Amino acid sequence: MVDVGLSFGAGLLIAGFGIMLLWGLLWLVVGTIGLARRTCGSVILLSSASSSSIAGLSIAGLLWAMDQARLSSPAFHMGLLSIPLVLMGASGFRLGDGRRIGPAFVEGSRAMWHQLLGVHQDGCGHCHEKPCEERP
Question: For the chain, what is the mean pLDDT?
Answer without folding.
Answer: 86
